[in-house]
Design goal:
198 residues; alpha+beta; Herpes Virus-1; 3 domains; three-stranded antiparallel beta sheet; 4 helices; 30% helix; flat; zinc ion binding; zinc-finger; repeat; TRIAD_supradom
């Protein structure tokens, strides 16, 4: 049963709403979050491929069960949740790969050959995917040759980073200074370290 309270203030958006409710059936606190805020939160979590969605109330650690999501969010968002759950479950099946041969294809399949026979042909679109690299098939290259090519690209990237960037002294993320003074500020939100480029 959904416990909906009317004309209360949502603890997230601070608006007076008629659809204040709890995110889970297990929540024992008073209903405190509006359906719009819950929908936005669940959508954000799903965009990050996270299906372990915890109640927004600070002192509550209850996780939304499948039935909770179905009960609380919009039908469109529930279908998105269901699709993400399905995709995550399929990805955990040994030998399963999504088609990488075409950006329009959203099919996947179990590839019996594994790394021994890495060229996987999609049953839906007919395009080839490399099972080993989980990428579009590297035409005219064996997996070993492809690894060598990728290794060269990685070396070139590393050379560029060493010549044109400096690591942030706090978080280690590479920073490139394009112009301006030598006072630099890391733009990583959790860091924001300020240091001298010289």
């Amino acid at each position: 049963m959904t416990n909906i309270c009317k004309n209360l203030e949502c603890v997230i958006c601070c608006d007076q709403k008629d659809n204040i409710l709890n995110m889970t059936i297990q929540c024992t606190h008073e209903p405190s979050t509006c359906q719009d805020c819950i929908n936005k939160y669940v959508n954000d979590q799903l965009s990050q491929k996270n299906t372990l969605i915890v109640c927004l109330v600070d002192e509550c650690n209850n996780t939304m069960e499948y039935q909770d999501v179905q009960r609380v969010v919009s039908n469109e968002l529930f279908h998105k949740f269901d699709e993400v759950c399905l995709k995550l479950a399929l990805q955990s099946v040994p030998g399963f790969r999504w088609c990488q041969g075409s950006s329009e294809c959203s099919s996947g399949q179990i590839h019996i050959g594994g790394d021994e026979a890495p060229k996987m042909i999609c049953e839906r679109c007919g395009k080839a995917t490399c099972y080993t690299h989980n990428s579009p098939w590297h035409e005219d290259l064996t997996c070993q040759e492809y690894d060598t090519l990728i290794g060269k690209v990685d070396i070139e990237s590393q050379t560029y980073l060493e010549k044109n960037t400096k690591p942030c002294p706090k978080c280690g993320i590479h920073i490139q200074k394009i112009d301006g003074c030598d006072h630099v500020k890391c733009k990583i939100e959790s860091c924001l370290m300020e240091f001298c480029w010289l």
